[in-house]
Amino acid sequence: MILPIYTYGQPVLRKVAEDIDKDYPNLTQLIQDMYDTLDRSEGIGLAAPQVGLNIRLVVINLDIISEDYPEYKGYIHTFINPYIEEYDETETDIMEEGCLSLPGVHESVKRPKRIRVTYLDENFQEHDEWVTGYLARVMQHEFDHLDGVVFTDHLTGLRKQLTRAKLQQIIKGKFNCAYKVKVKR
Ligand code: NI
Fold it and tell me: What pLDDT, in 10s, does the model give residues 104-147?
């Protein structure tokens, strides 16, 4: 089932999300719905707050960019209760990001290249690993959503000011996108 994407201005995008356990109702179906929603909107990552749920759950599909990044062929993964444990601040890079909850906004964001993450997979197996490259960027963007942070929060100076006007338009529902959304009313 395709779920509507909650757009900027929805309070759920500003909350710290809560851990879940195996007993979370209909979790398998929810994960499938999140993948379906991600496919339909042609995104690479989706966090549960973006479908209105205040829980620590993220799906990432990098297979769709594997023409440009062959190392991510078949990379489709679910992250339950993920946390970024360490940021390796020795190297950063700057790349353009976008977000399904911020339609039409694309800005360059500086982030550390390497992070250590802990999470459970869909079988509730624990993982603790260092991640680099594009995946590390996507994880930082998605896991930020679980702490009420969106990528434009990382902007500074003039870019931040210019983006603010666009965000106000999103709150008012003045934007175009090809997928189903739930705007703050
Ligand atoms: Ni996002």
Answer: 999 999 999 999 999 999 999 999 999 999 999 999 999 999 99
Q: Answer yes or no: pTM beyond 0.85.
A: yes
- Residue-wise pLDDT tens digits, 46-69: 999 999 999 999 999 999 999 999
Q: ∠ CA(149), CA(161), CA(7), 5° rounding?
A: 40
CATH number of the domain enclosing 122: 3.90.45.10
Amino acid in the structure at residue 157: G
Total domain count, the chain: 1
Set 91, 97, 129, 142: catalytic member = 142
Among 59, 58, 56, residue whose Cα is nearest residue 18:
56
Q: What is the DSSP string of 120-145?
A: E-TT--EEEEEEEHHHHHHHHHHHHH
Residue 60's identity, in one-letter code, is: I
97 is catalytic: no
Ligand 1 centroid to Cα of residue 16, in Å, is 15
Whole-number Å distance, alpha carbon 148 to ligand 1 midpoint, is: 11
Sign of torsion over alpha carbons 97, 7, 179, 140: positive
Ligand 1 center–CA 128 separation, angstroms: 23
Structural domain of 22: 5-182
User: What is the CA(22)–ligand 1 centre distance, in A?
Assistant: 25
